[in-house]
Amino acid sequence: MAFNQLLAMVEAIFSAHEEELDCEGCDQEMPHLVEIIEAGEDPTLLLPAVQEHLNHCRDCREEFEALLVIVRAEDQGVLNQNGNGTGGS
Amino acid sequence: MQTKYRNRLAFARLAVYRTIPPKEMSLRICVVQFMHVEALLRVYLMTERTNEQWVADLTADHTVEQAEALEDLRLRLQRGIFYYLRRERSDLSSRSHTNLQQMAEDFTQEATLRIIKNIHSFRGDSRFTTWATKVAVRVAISELRRARYRDFSLEEVTADGEMMPDLNVLFPAGQPTGPERSAEQSEVLEKIRAAIQNALTERQRTALEAVGLRGVPLEIVAEQMNTNRNALYKLLHDARVKLRAALEQEGISVSYIHDLFR
Ligand SMILES: [Zn+2]
Questions:
Q1: Domain boundaries along the sequence of chain A
Q2: Which of B218, B230, B254 sits opposite A11 (nearest CB)?
Q3: Cα–Cα distance between B260 and B76 in angstroms, integer?
Q4: Domain boundaries, chain B
Q5: Distance (Å, whole) CA B242 – CA B247
């Protein structure tokens, strides 16, 4: 185990709170959170519990980041109608 | 826009156009221009269903509306998932375009079934399409995880029963730490090791090692521990809370560890 992993684990331990949002709760809030971020609002103010869960849960974070990428591409019109969305390659 | 409406609109426009006598050239041109603007506005403003329309159309069994909504949803999810697979997944970069399209198609099909089944859990606090995309993302990423960890065995990973590292492992030979500091480091590592050993259950230790130290997805570990991801998260959360209390009692903090091992 590398030092960084040790430190990451220690940080995860010390940022533990009694009450935390679980994966199901996070899953429900995710679409809303993505739209808040897309609208340029500060998510740490509006949905701090979701943000906190994302810091602790790699699975949810991976899904959240993927959702953000796709919604952003849709909003910016990057994805064309024939389903390529390759940005012109 | 849905094909049915596009055709009706075209007929309606033609009908209006024909009511103007051919000799009124300027009026005809004016009307055509107006129709053009109106068509553009429609494309920009009215192609999207409202949330209510999505839910109503998708649940209107055996209707044209449902078939059209399903097709629109399928196209949209598929292009989003394909974009993600192609642009964001470096682990899939060796796959062909056709192969990725096929994957996106399969994930979308599964996601569509799940969306229809769970449509009543859509709360309306986001656009329907964002919610639906989230379902599709979850299907896609779950499947990719499963494929990647197909040969993974939790027992193998946690077999050695030795979770905490030796100082020699943490700092490979020749790190400039004085003997005093090195003794203090060993002592702290020993305290963390003891806390993990004494404060946690066997299941918590296994989960912590696999997820926290080895970076295995919760979903995969949960499956092998015969539980689900949500329950595993709670188990890990409980473990963190217990470890925090145990370490705080020992006077250990993040900044202390940071300084000691820097
Ligand atoms: Zn989670």
A1: 18-75
A2: B254
A3: 52
A4: 3-148, 154-261
A5: 9
For the domain covering B154-261, report its CATH number. Answer: 1.10.10
B262 touches chain A (CB under 8 A): no
- Is A61 touching B (CB cutoff 8 A)? no
pLDDT (tens digit per residue) in B119-142: 999 999 999 999 999 999 999 999
Q: Which residue has the tokens 């399209």?
A: B101
What pLDDT digit, counting tens, does each position of B65-86 carry? 999 999 999 999 999 999 999 9
Cβ distance B170 to A57 less than 8 Å, yes or no, reads: no
Q: Does A80 touch chain B (CB under 8 A)?
A: yes
Where helices occur in chain A by DSSP H, the ranges are 3-14, 23-38, 43-46, 48-56, 58-75
The rounded Å distance from CA A50 to ligand 1 centre is 9
Contact of B68 with B23, CB cutoff 8 Å: no
State the Cα–Cα distance between residues A14 and B6, nearest whole angstrom: 59
Mean pLDDT of chain B: 87
* Both tokens assigned to B130: 């964002």
Give residues 12 to 71 of B whose Cβ lies within 8 Å of A: none
Give the nearest chain B residue to A84 (CA atoms). Answer: B79
B86 touches chain A (CB under 8 A): yes
- Check if the beta carbon of residue B140 is closer than 8 Å to that of residue B85: yes
Instruction: Mark yes or no for CB contact A6/B261 under 8 Å.
Output: yes
